Structure formats: C-alpha cells, structure tokens
User: Fold these one by one.
Assistant:
Number 1:
Amino acid sequence: RKEVEQDPGPFNVPEGATVAFNCTYSNSASQSFFWYRQDCRKEPKLLMSVYSSGNEDGRFTAQLNRASQYISLLIRDSKLSDSATYLCVVNLIVLEYGNKLVFGAGTILRVKS
Amino acid sequence: DTEVTQTPKHLVMGMTNKKSLKCEQHMGHRAMYWYKQKAKKPPELMFVYSYEKLSINESVPSRFSPECPNSSLLNLHLHALQPEDSALYLCASSEQGLGMIAFFGQGTRLTVV
C-alpha cells in the first residue's frame, strides 16, 4: 500500500465549478499535512497547510480527519488559472532523523472555459 | 526571502562525466532535501540533511553523492549516471519539527546521454 494515495484524475471542470480532492495516508504517526500545487515543468509550491480544525484561504478549504487518515481539498468557483497538479503531502517526523515529506501521486485539475 | 536557488537550471551530461548540482537557501533552515521527479510522477525523496548531517538516505545508488558544506548550501555530486537517471532534481529546505513548511527550488532538469 502506498504511503499517500490520491485519485490521479484528471478532473475536467468548467469555470465556476466546485471541485473536491481526497487523499489518504497509511502511517498514523504522520504529523503534519499539506497541499502543494505544481504547474507543468515547475517546482511544487505550497498551497496550504491542513489542520484538524479545517482551514480556509479564499476559495480553498482544506480538512484533515486523523481518525480516518483522510485529507481533503475543496476549490470553489474554479478559475482557469487553477489548472495544475495538486499534491497531497504528509510529513512523517522521524525524531532522530528529522522530517520526511512524502508526496502523493498528485491529482490533475483542468479548468475549462 | 523565501527562496531556494538551484544551479544549473538545465544540465546535459554523458555517462562518464562528473558533475554537481548546487542548492542554496538563506532562510536559516536547518533541514535540506534532495528529491528526484520523473515526468508525470510525484517527487521522490532521495536525501535529507538535518543540521548539516545526512539523516535520511532513501537507498539511493552511490553514483549520487550528497554534500552539505554549510547550513546554507547543499550539493549533489553525480558520477557515472545512467540515461534512466534523467529527471528533474529538486532541492528543498525547511525548519525542523512539527508544522514545518518546505520550500522548493526551481529544480535542475538533468539529461543523461
């Protein structure tokens, strides 16, 4: 079983749509969680951190369910510029070794006019 | 300054060449990472340096040799690579501990011929 699993998509949605991505992780010792965005041939960039209380940044809402080991990202009012690959990232802190960031395979979003 | 700088941006090397990739950050981060990313795949962790000491080596072949000369610099020395090693090599840095956020450089696109 992969450490971090995501539906690879692609999700093809019209502008203005609401789209949701899910991610599951296998290691219950995972400590912190993130969504990164990666554009074609560019580096990953942090979209948002994910907390159990949920967090919202404009049109983006992220949620963590530790009991189910499940992370979600909701994008409202999709824009053409949201087209990218969304990477679910889990930080497994190995105390004597430091942080180990593990990436999911990524979910491709294509927003069309 | 939340920048991680990688050089060179592109590199073409023969299988008998020796080359080095360089990474620099001035955010005071004490953890630095090398990732390898193949096309349409997520980044895969290669090495983690924590306080300038190699803390995680994800069973990377010895033809890849990391080096951390000081807290701001991270190198990846390459020797006798194979064509299948062609990929985007990403450097990242972060603070240590819970809730850390990793910042990525733009990557070096490596082609082995």
Note: The radius of gyration of chain A is 14 Å.
Number 2:
Amino acid sequence: EIVLTQSPGTLSLSPGERATLFCRASQSVYTNYLAWYQQKPGQAPRLLIYGIFSRATGIPDRFSGSGSGTDFTLTISRLEPEDFALYYCQQYGDTRWSFGQGTKLEIK
Amino acid sequence: ELQLVESGGGLVQPGRSLRLSCTASGFTFGDYVMSWVRQAPGKGLELVAFIRIKAYGETAEYAASVKGRFTVSRDDSNSIAYLQMDSLKTEDTAVYYCTRGLRISGDVFDIWGQGTMVTVSS
C-alpha cells in the first residue's frame, strides 16, 4: 500500500495569502492518479482536484494541483475565509487506494 | 440535485451487527461505483469498501481491516447502497460516509453523503 505523508501538519496563514500544501508518496503514483479533498468541521469531505490537475465541478480556479511521481502540491493562490479547513490527498494509482493524514489550514 | 443520504448508524455492542443504507437521488445510480469511507473521531479517512456496477458483476473490494466482517451490496432499482457490518469491534467506531465514484473505476469520490455515526461500545 502506498503511504501518503502530508506536510505541514498545520499551516497558519491570513486571508489573501498563498497556501502551498504538500503530499509525498512512499512510491511513485501510477499515472499520477492523485486527488485532493477539503473538509470543514462537521461536514463531509469535498472533492477539489483529481488527476493531479483537474478541478472538480464548481471548484474555483484559485485552487490548483501540481506534481508528479512521488511529490504533489495543492496551491490556493489567494486564501478566502471559507478556505480554512482540513485538506487530504488521496492516491488511486495503486489497487489499494489510500489517503494522507491531512493538513489543517488555520487562520493566523 | 445530486444527493446521498446515509442512515442506520447508532450505538451497538461489540460483536453485534448493524446495517447502513445510502439512498441516492439526482443521478442514474446504476451507472456508478459506490463506496463507503469512514472517519474515526479526530482521525483521517479510510476506504472501507466499494461495489462495482452491474456491468462489472457488482463485485466488491474491502479494506483488510473489515474483510470477512463487512459486506457491501446495492439495489439499483431503488438507488440504495448497503453496508452490512457484522462482528463489530470498538475500532469500527467512526462516521461512515457513502460516496459516489467519479470514474468508472470508482476511485475518485465526487459526491459524499452527510455521514452516519457508528459507535461500538459496551
């Protein structure tokens, strides 16, 4: 099973700043099958990005994904108040899909 | 509106059983792989099980932690997915989410239910 390690554990930023979240895989992710989800307290996760780059329906273009192989990044170009939440990466290139442990994006 | 609504959660003693239901609306249920993802209190996400569409034999896959104890099934005529949980353990305590697979392989979860809480405790 591919293990995903997200960093940092917590990221403290202010609205309007740029956020960069990292996800590192224990081995190369096949065909770059990597997704990102956002979860707010008391809510279900929401799909943001899949296939590294593709935004899900309704996701604003301030969210972007990049990376390849074992290293992936979620970037939020200019933080809005509603962006402060938990973020998870997920790989689905292996037969056993797995999630990272999450990065908490909090208001500074 | 695309929607998944889970039900059936609650408090159950270790060793007992529980069946979760997930009722879908707003899309052609039979065209999509359906999965169950759980989240223990204060923890991350774990894929529990998924079931393929009829064209792929409605075959299912399970996490190692639940294999042999949980069974996923589907009723396409009523747009419902089920998760039968037997021999429950305290470590099965979690919010259980029903999800829809964006791709034919079911591996990207684009629609999520609100979740149902399962507490396994004596």
Note: The radius of gyration of chain B is 13 Å.
Number 3:
Amino acid sequence: GENVEQHPSTLSVQEGDSAVIKCTYSDSASNYFPWYKQELGKGPQLIIDIRSNVGEKKDQRIAVTLNKTAKHFSLHITETQPEDSAVYFCAASQGGYSTLTFGKGTMLLVSP
Amino acid sequence: SAVISQKPSRDICQRGTSLTIQCQVDSQVTMMFWYRQQPGQSLTLIATANQGSEATYESGFVIDKFPISRPNLTFSTLTVSNMSPEDSSIYLCSVGTGQGNQPQHFGDGTRLSIL
C-alpha cells in the first residue's frame, strides 16, 4: 500500500520567514495530494490540494509543488504569521474513491 | 465546503462501556469516513461508511469493536465498544465531496478518554 513520509516533524520560524514542509510517497499511481492544517482542539482543515496533472498551485501565501518523477510534494508558506502555528499533514491517494494515506505531521511554530 | 457536526465533542468513560459518536453533515454526501487520531499522532482510517451497505473496515479494525451505521446520506454513527484505556483517542468523521472521495472535509472530532 501507499506510504507517505513527512519532514520535518517540527519546524520553528520567525514571523515573516518562509516555511517549507516536504512529503514523499511510494505509490506511483497516487495522483491527488491534499494538505491539512490542524489547530489545537480542532479537526484537520483542508488548506490546499494538488492533482498530478499540475506541478504547482498557489493560494495567497500558500503554495504546493509536485514532482511526480521524484514522488515528492512540498508545502510552502510565505510571510508566516503566528496564526500559522499548527500541525500540518500531507496526504496522498489514487483519486476517485480511493482512501487517503496521511503523513505523520509537522508541528509549525511561528514566533512573533 | 460541507459543515460537519460531531457529538459529543468530548467524553470520559469507564472501561468496559460503549460510546456512540454521531456525525451530521449539512448536505447529502456519498462517502463518509471514520478516523482515529491517537495523542500526538497522525490520522488512521477506521472504516468507510456507505449509505445502504455495510461499512468497509481497514486492516486492524473490526466491526464488533467499531460498529458503524449509515442510515441516510447526511448521518453516520461510530460506536466504540467494550472500551479500554488504549481506545483513548480523537475520533474524527470526514466526508468526501466533489470528485469521488476528494476533497475530504473533517469535523472537529470527539475526544475520548477511558479511565
């Protein structure tokens, strides 16, 4: 089955810096890659997703890049703010009605 | 995106008892999912709940321990049976929207502690 590795497990940055979280996947049939943000006491919130027919997708300060050949994808957050502090999860699936496989999560801490 | 409500939001239970968690969605959805998130850990899929058919369980999870109901397209329940301290976790409901299962949106979960 699919295996998703996520790095780093924790990431500390200063407000205004950029943050990058990386994930690799094992199943070359995977074609859908969402990212979730989970704040304390809340459920995971979908923040951005990408399908394998594109290499990059942006939404304001957040971007995701995908390298299908290397089987890795990354989340980029620019101009970080304290409210970006949370646990971020990447996931992968084969799309359609396939299930999601999650990475182990990255705790992002943004210091003022 | 769909609005997903889970009840209860948290509970403390005695070992050996059972608890039923409810998940209500504000629109009709085909696929509903139940996940477990152990403290400080990632999300693990328990089962997929389809309306009108039996739930599909992932490896390591069985119907006797985690019976699921899906009576209509907006509601599902997960029961955690004969609970032990190892069942202390966050239980999350999610729904698939759009194309097939994706994207999935989650409720805020049920925080369960077993004494």
Note: Chain A touches chain B at residues 32, 34, 36, 41-46, 49, 89, 93, 95-100, 102-105 (CB under 8 Å).
Number 4:
Amino acid sequence: AQSVTQLDSHVSVSEGTPVLLRCNYSSSYSPSLFWYVQHPNKGLQLLLKYTSAATLVKGINGFEAEFKKSETSFHLTKPSAHMSDAAEYFCVANSGYSTLTFGKGTMLLVSP
Amino acid sequence: DAGVIQSPRHEVTEMGQEVTLRCKPISGHNSLFWYRQTMMRGLELLIYFNNNVPIDDSGMPEDRFSAKMPNASFSTLKIQPSEPRDSAVYFCASSFSSANEKLFFGSGTQLSVL
C-alpha cells in the first residue's frame, strides 16, 4: 500500500519570498511522484514529475522538487513566490500500474 | 486541442433524481479516470478505464454509481438515485497510456444534491 502525506494544509508566504510545500510518501516500491496544482474552479494541472532519472526535478513556473529516498520526501520549492502561485497543490504517488494516490492538498496563500 | 471537456459545469438536483455527468477525453488518450473531490475526503479515484474497458472500479462508492465508456471519445458517470452526500466536484481526467503518464484534467462538474 502507498500513502502520501502533505504536512501542511495551508502555507502563507509574502510575494517574493521562498515557497516550501512538504510531502512525504510511503510505498512498497520506488514510486513515481508528481506535483499538481489546482487554481480556483479549475482542474488539476501537472507541475512536475519524478521517475528516477534525476533526484532534482524542474517543473513549470519556476517550481522544482527534490526526491530524497532516505527521508521518503518530495518537497516542492520555489525561490520567489508570485501572486499567481496562490492555489492548492497536490503531491501524488504512483507505485503501481494504474491508480494514483493523492495527498490531501496544501493551500498556498500569497500576500502582497 | 480543447483538452478534457466535461459537462455540465454545474448541476443542481433534488435528492432521488438521476444525475449524468459527461466527459470527452483528449483525442488519442486511451486512459480515462473519474475522480470525486470533497473538502472532507480530498480527491478520490472512482473508476479508471483503459482502452474503453473498466480496469479498476473499487472506488465507486456503491451501486447507485455507474460509469460507462462506450467509445474512445466519450464517458459518462451516472448516479441513480442521487443523495445529498453525493454533492462534490467530479473530475474526469485522461492520459496517453496509464496513470504513470501526465494526467490532463477537465474543469470538473460541481454537483449539488438538495
């Protein structure tokens, strides 16, 4: 069985400051890991994907995530937050053929 | 490409009524997923099709829920009879081969059962 834990339900930052959204996973196998973003009243959009090619993954909009097997973590970071980054972010794992396991989501709030 | 298209965007119905949600996946994608999103439970996979065949329906809550994919370009999720606890946002997503590939989500159907 696999599970995904997003450690913070809400994260508040000021525009221009770094963003850190935390995610830990548990899986019997080496999983594929994803981060998705959901803007209000929209579907989810893929930010980035890890599939064991490189531990540091760069995604869209300046986001990146580092896979740390020893810590079973896949935290999402961005050096400088923008107002348009305000959204809900989902960490997702897939260690099987078909189904994805979604974290509960972290709401990112960006203040001016 | 127009992306994954879901209809309707919003549905308000009364308890006991039949509800049908529709999804048109991206052309060429052969995997289709139905998800339900609520504040309490987050995103839950309801059912997953590959090449129009249901592969995993273990997430379908109960017999009131059914899903079909008669062809590669259309899927429906039906709730009969609907109940207030079914109120949620229902997302359809498609991918090229499996869930290990990038999922493209529709904008969702906001369902309210009164």
Note: Chain B touches chain A at residues 4, 31, 42-43, 45, 48, 50, 55-56, 91, 93, 98-100, 102-108 (CB under 8 Å).
